[in-house]
Amino acid sequence: MLPTDMPPVAIITLGVTLAIIFAINRFGFLQGRTGIPAASAGAAQVAAVINLATAAVEGLTMAVTESNVIARQHARATDRLAEHAENLGEGLDRLRDEVIRSAAKMK
């Protein structure tokens, strides 16, 4: 049944019912509001603080990521230094043994 097939009283009732539902929804009568709140200065300040906090967290994330990269590079460099120190120690041990053998042959 289309609205044009309805009796005039039913169309008026439907229109009034829809208007009441729209008014309750739009002006927030059931929730105790005075209407749909426009963007207030307080909401803008809260949004600004949230944006600043988000930017700060992003900055910290980048700093931590860079720090992790530097720490990995440092760990690799330290491993290489430890390897060189170990090789140097082994070389000194071989040199000492050779000096001892040479001294023993001179006697």
In short:
The protein has two helices and no strands. The protein is mainly alpha-helical and 107 residues long. The model has no long low-confidence stretch (mean pLDDT 83).
Give the key terms.
107 residues; mainly alpha; 2 helices; 2 domains
Topology:
Layout: H1 8-27, H2 41-106
Structure description:
With 107 residues, this protein is an all-alpha fold. The protein has two domains: 1-33; 47-107. Helices cover 80% and strands 0% of the residues. The chain has two helices and no strands. It has helices at 8-27, 41-106. The radius of gyration is 41 Å and the shape is rod-shaped. The model has no long low-confidence stretch (mean pLDDT 83).
**Terminal Cα span:** 126 Å
Please give the count of helices.
2
Q: On the 0-100 scale, what is the average pLDDT?
A: 83
What is the H/E order?
A: HH
> How many separate domains make up the residues?
2
Strand content: under 5%
Task: Please give the number of β-strands.
Answer: 0
Label the overall shape: rod-shaped
The oligomerization state is single chain
Low-confidence stretches at least 5 residues in length (pLDDT < 50)? none
Structure class: mainly alpha
Portion in helices:
over 70%
Radius of gyration: 41 Å
Profile the largest sheet. none
